[in-house]
Specification:
By secondary structure, this protein is of the alpha/beta class. Helix content is 43%, strand content 17%. The chain contains nine helices and eight strands. Helix 3 runs parallel beside helix 4.
Length: 266
């Protein structure tokens, strides 16, 4: 498995510094938070996109994916959501990123069936555009669809190879799924896995990997036993928790912890 980290952990950090952090700490890739607060988002021009791609190439680091904020199950018109996905897909194509992340975002006023149908319809519409660009849309286990069982209700309806799953291990754990259950549900669709750690279901301030309660050993074990060889991406939510320790000083220890888990499970 290859290792990456998300720029959610280093809010606003210039791209050359992001690439340098990855290279000096032994990571193979970076997930870019695609938001106007960050250096990379759909509003940047072609020259900026080319510069970002060149920076990553020169540093020998891959752009794993773009973490966007389209909410595919949200109430409302389809058009703006599909347009948002297409903008993210264009940016991913320009940066050479194989994936974009979208959220479910279903509303409390919807029935589960309506939220599922809305998400599947929008993802199905965007799938052909994604296929043309060679980019894959990943639905994250999050908010209204936080478990693998939730996500496959949508993904099974879509049935397109350019639409898959992003397994956020915190949300499936919060939803009461065991890692073996989550993997069994998501494995036919799995793009990559986001790892993290927290102290409890009530206290979600990010911790260093291995310092909290999330079942990272079990996650790596089930992935290893099934021969899965994709990406593990550390999503450290510094942007939402200013009191959290800086990520930069923890990256080497995080990589070493994941390396130990991988070796133990080999």
């Amino acid at each position: 498995m290859r290792l990456a980290f998300s720029t959610l952990g280093v809010p606003g950090l210039p791209i050359p510094d992001v690439v340098r952090l990855a290279a000096t700490n032994g990571y193979h890739g970076v997930e870019l938070r695609a938001h106007p607060e960050e250096p990379v988002h759909p509003g940047i021009g072609l020259t900026e996109r080319a510069d970002v791609a060149a920076e990553f190439k020169a540093g020998g680091i891959e752009v794993l994916g773009l973490a966007g904020y389209a909410r595919v199950a949200a109430p409302g018109d389809d058009g703006p959501v599909i347009d948002e996905m297409r903008e993210l897909l264009d940016l991913a194509r320009d940066l050479g990123a194989p994936y974009i992340r979208v959220f479910p975002g279903g509303g409390h006023e919807q029935s589960r069936e309506r939220a599922d149908a809305t998400a599947a319809r929008r993802l199905g519409t965007a799938a052909e555009y994604a296929a043309d660009l060679g980019v894959r849309i990943l639905l994250e286990t999050h908010d209204s669809h936080r478990t693998g069982a939730d996500a496959i209700r949508v993904l099974g309806r879509v049935g397109h190879r350019h639409v898959g799953a992003l397994w956020d291990v915190m949300h499936t754990w919060l939803g009461g799924e065991q890692p073996s259950e989550s993997f069994a549900a998501l494995s036919p669709f799995l793009g990559y896995v986001q790892v993290k750690d927290i102290s409890s279901a009530e206290e979600k301030t990010p911790l260093g990997l291995g310092a909290g309660v999330l079942p990272l050993t079990d996650v790596v074990d089930v992935l290893s036993r099934h021969g899965w060889d994709g990406w593990l991406c550390w999503e450290y939510e510094k942007r939402w928790y200013e009191e959290a320790a800086p990520l930069a000083g923890q990256l080497a220890a995080g990589r070493e912890h994941l390396g130990r888990l991988l070796n133990d499970c080999a």
